[in-house]
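**Backbone description:**
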Amino acid sequence: MTVLRSQLDVSSETYASHRTAQLEVLAQLDEQLELVVAGGGERYTQRHRERGKLPVRERLELLLDPDSPFLELSALAAWGTGFTVGASVLTGIGVVCGVECMVVGHDPTVRGGAMNPYSLRKALRALEIARVNRLPVVNLVESGGADLPTQADLFVPAGRIFHELTELSSLGIPTVAIVFGNSTAGGAYVPGMCDYAVLVDRRAKVFLGGPPLVKMATGEESDDESLGGAEMHSRVSGLSDYFAVDEHDAIRLGRQIISRINWRKLGPPPSAAPEPPRYDPEEILGIIPPDPKVPFDPREVLARTVDGSDFDEYKPLYGTSLVTGWASIHGYPVGVLANHRGVLFSEEAKKASEFILLANQTDTPLVFLQNTTGYMVGARYEQGGIIKDGAKMINAVTNSTVPHLTITMASSFGAGNYGMSGRGYDPRLLFAWPGAKLAVMGAAQLAGVMSIVGRASAESQGKPFDEEADRRRTAAIEAQIEAESHAFHITARLYDDGIVDPRDTRTVLGMSLSAVHSTTVAGRRGFGVFRM
């Protein structure tokens, strides 16, 4: 039998303490998500409504199919910076008229929806996900353009938005712009470069330069409507494909467009009716230790994530610090690589390489569950070939062409992050649990290494070593690395696609698998040179 049998004692003190700690972290996450939903705050939201406009999340709700899920991405972008958390733009994957789409919506209650460096990164990541996974894009447009004080960090990279939109069109991936308000300067090219443009009467303002700029540049007197109003663009310029009388009508037209694109997924449908796990996903909170240095068995997570808790483990007696095997999630077959005791030895690296090759032979998507401190160090392991064995694993991850989905459960340190398909290895989607840590190594280890290096340097120069200064420096470095490896800090910089509640892991993976099957799912049959 391949059905997992849980050893978790839900009545134990350990389980209760783990659960309590995770609930505290989740409460901190919820507090930040409330700020994201609030956008620019009550004052600016009320002003927006008084102008007869809907907030971006209400526009989204009307756009999506009733009661359908929405996988929000990069919700905490810009957290901990001088910009509003959420970065003034809403992105995510949702279902419109039965079609999974990428939705990009400006939040005009935050500085008029102006784009800052973090909102640019967030929008570009959304368009990249759409391109790689073949998802139609719906833009909910209302933005004053660039946040001008940050133009030095925006102007050059922002051109990539136009590149992505035109490339999507060239790939036959439909793009739709629904313009509710300002779409000025560079932003005017968004409806101009989308396949379909819907403009709202007396609300949409699409022009390269507004009346003040036109006056300064040419001396011409003009007004918003004659320069860039919906009626002008519908009757005169031809930029507008659909003229909407109000916001509800615009969203209706947007849905109508998606309903007529004759969209078909290229990947195979789920191969079986999904059977829920035999164990309650709620119990995952009691599995995760609050200290990321304490290992836990990922099979307990899998028992509460995969269909029917059915997991066919591959090489269970070899390379036991890495759990590998076959399962299904919401009916989609997957291969799973999950760290057990953190460290990757040569055996784990070779096991992973073989497993990844097998998944590519059978066109099976891969799920990486990260909890790793990296590859093993030491004379014995260097002599045993840990570098070349790690290179095999990284080669396999790099050249694998089946979809990769990555969840950072706890630690993701060093080259282990690379071997387990971290951000630098282009997983289709990557999410983190709220207690996860990401860094070159743990804070204590990094500070300790710096201390050892400093001590050796002083000794080589024949200078006395200042123990008190070393203690202060070590404490400061530890605090810095702890802050920089915090899940909120990492997701704020878009090193993942969002933080998810561990209890929602199965749902998030199911939605992600459905999305990646919008395009062809095919493995690579030929790999690069493996260092033997």
Q: What stands out?
A: The longest strand covers residues 175-184. The chain has 19 helices and 17 strands.
